[in-house]
Specification:
Layout lengths: L1 E10 L2 E11 L4 E5 L6 H8 L7 E6 L2 E2 L4 H6 L1 E4 L11 H11 L7 H11 L15 H13 L5 E5 L7 H14 L4 E5 L3 H7 L2 E6 L2 E6 L1 H7 L2 E10 L5 H6 L4 E9 L2 E9 L5 H10 L3 E8 L3 H9 L5
Parallel strand pairs: 3-8, 3-9, 6-7, 7-8
Antiparallel strand pairs: 1-2, 1-4, 4-5, 9-10, 11-13, 11-14, 12-13
Helix pairs in contact: 3-4, 4-5
The structure holds adenosine-5'-triphosphate and magnesium ion (MG).
């Protein structure tokens, strides 16, 4: 559905994205992750034909985004980072106006606007002035706008930014449902959201793609894995030194409170050292009140990739 080849964008004196290559297949929900300034918005704006790349090419549904921009855009719904809405229009008015702009035939507009209003939960605010809407509703209007011409691809740039936790859950559900019938490219800084919704993830850092895989594979292959927490009284023993002798333990940090020591163990990928820790504690007669494993998450992957060369 999306094909990007050697895409590069330079702003005056600065390369925002460098030689990007990736594809998004039909029906995929692709998470597009990266720190601030990584190049996500730049890439998405180019795909939405808002600006040309400096070099390279991209196509949507087989149509070149510049030579066949109209055809490409007919397949694409784009929700920008800061949804530009007309603040003095009413929700209905705005959606009708946008539908007409997108060349939806006149007789079909009421039906299309009705559908997206329903889908995005806008019924109760349809006659409100956009300027008076809360952030969450404004985002929904932006999403309804992106959907009104029935595109098969959605490009959503941080659709949940600035929303409260309840609204985030609602938008996440909406995106999941949209994903049943649409291909989606989604940028966000909320990583648990990606683990819950996306079938694949691209991590971009300083304008380059550093990872492109399923969330499961990324988490499985991460070098610094999760860890184990042990809460114990170790008497005279130097608990940290003992724990470090366990093969797969990479390092141990300790905090102490009320005579209880909390050991945080970082372990090698794929290793589960809980049994060994338990045996050690039993043999040494330590009092134990907690022994838990922390699985690595997409957040660990993100941190490892994007902080690799920073101190
Ligand atoms: N119009 C512009 N003129 C000059 N430089 C720009 C412009 N837009 C973006 N940049 C630069 O390009 C780089 C990539 O920016 P971009 O907005 O694509 O990042 P992003 O991944 O969307 O970040 P964020 O998570 O903060 O939204 C940044 O270094 C940014 O400063
Ligand atoms: Mg951005």
């Amino acid at each position: 559905m999306i094909k990007v080849e050697n895409l590069t964008k330079k702003y005056a004196g600065q390369t925002a994205i460098r030689d990007l290559n990736f594809e998004v297949g039909n029906g995929e929900i692709m998470g597009f992750l990266g720190p601030n300034g990584a190049g996500k918005t730049t890439t998405m704006r180019i795909l939405a034909s808002f600006m040309p790349p400096s070099s390279g090419r991209a196509s949507i549904a087989g149509f070149d985004i510049f030579n066949q921009s109209l055809e490409a855009r007919a397949h694409l719904g784009y929700m920008p980072e800061n949804v530009p809405l007309y603040n003095d229009m009413r929700v209905n008015e705005y959606l009708n106006y946008r539908a007409a702009l997108k060349n939806i035939p006149h007789r079909r507009i009421p039906e299309r606007v009705g559908d997206v209003r329903e889908l995005c939960g806008l019924k109760e605010v349809e006659n409100k002035i956009i300027g008076a809407l809360s952030k969450g509703y404004r985002q929904r209007v932006g999403l309804a706008d992106a959907l009104v011409h029935e595109p098969d691809l959605l490009i959503l740039d941080e659709p949940t930014s600035g929303l409260d936790p309840n609204q985030i859950r609602q938008v996440r559900e909406l995106i999941k449902n949209l994903g049943k019938q649409h291909t989606i490219l989604l940028s966000t800084h909320i990583l648990p959201e990606v683990e819950m919704t996306c079938s694949r993830v691209i991590i971009i850092h300083r304008g380059r793609i550093e990872a492109n895989d399923t969330p499961e594979n990324l988490v499985q292959h991460i070098r610094t894995a999760g860890g184990v927490t042990l809460d114990a009284k170790t008497g005279k023993d130097d608990g940290a030194a003992e724990l470090k002798r366990i093969g797969a333990v990479r390092d141990v940090s300790v905090t102490e409170e009320d005579g209880w020591k909390t050991f945080s163990l970082r372990v090698e990928s794929g290793a589960d050292v809980r049994e060994e820790v338990f045996r050690l504690a039993r043999d040494r007669h330590w009092d134990v009140r907690e022994l838990t494993a922390r699985r690595p998450t997409l957040e660990d992957v993100f941190v490892e990739i994007t902080q690799a060369d920073e101190v």
